[in-house]
């Protein structure tokens, strides 16, 4: 995505691009796909990242390359999302007609290792998610989890 700088939104001091609210201090690498999201100050988005609508990434958070952040995810302040992290917003059901988007909330100061998969859960503040982990349940604050399923 090549960012074309438009005039800042006077009420919030942000730039509107592709229905995204992007703080002027945010850095977005080439080859990203962003739409309908909100990126606060000092966020970094690496190359080949997709961030969908209704995602909010709070200040000083870094999203590394090849990660996917689906709609309905909130990522807190001062987080690090490593390469290839996948967020999901649904749980498998037999019937697709009853599909409901489920939310994922990541607290502040969370570190998520490369190739982790995060199902719709709440991850508390100050957590570490190991590389390759599959997070299927909520993670309490100040916890380290790893493995599949993450424990």
How would you characterize the overall build of this protein?
0% of the residues lie in helices and 29% in strands. With 151 residues, it is mainly β. Strands 1-2-5-8-11-14-17 form a 7-stranded mixed beta sheet, with no helix packed on it. The chain has a 7-stranded parallel beta sheet with strand order 3-6-9-12-15-18-20, with no helix packed on it. Strands 4-7-10 form a 3-stranded parallel beta sheet, with no helix packed on it. The protein is globular. Mean pLDDT is 89; it is low at 1-12.
Counting DSSP H or I runs of 4 or more residues, the number of helices is 0
Question: How much is the average pLDDT?
Answer: 89
Report the order of strands and helices: EEEEEEEEEEEEEEEEEEEE
How would the global form be characterised?
globular
Any low-confidence stretches, pLDDT <50, length ≥5? 1-12
Structural class: mainly beta
The CATH topology turns out to be UDP N-Acetylglucosamine Acyltransferase, domain 1
Name of the top-level CATH class: Mainly Beta
Kindly report the spatial arrangement of strands forming the biggest sheet. Answer: 1-2-5-8-11-14-17
Q: What about the largest sheet? A: 7 strands, mixed
According to CATH, the homologous superfamily is Hexapeptide repeat proteins
Query: How many domains would you count in the coordinates?
Result: 1
Radius of gyration: 15 Å
Instruction: Name the beta content range.
Output: 25-35%
Tell how many strands the DSSP assignment holds. Answer: 20
Instruction: Tell me the span between the first and last alpha carbons.
Output: 37 Å
Corresponding CATH architecture: 3 Solenoid
Helix content: under 10%
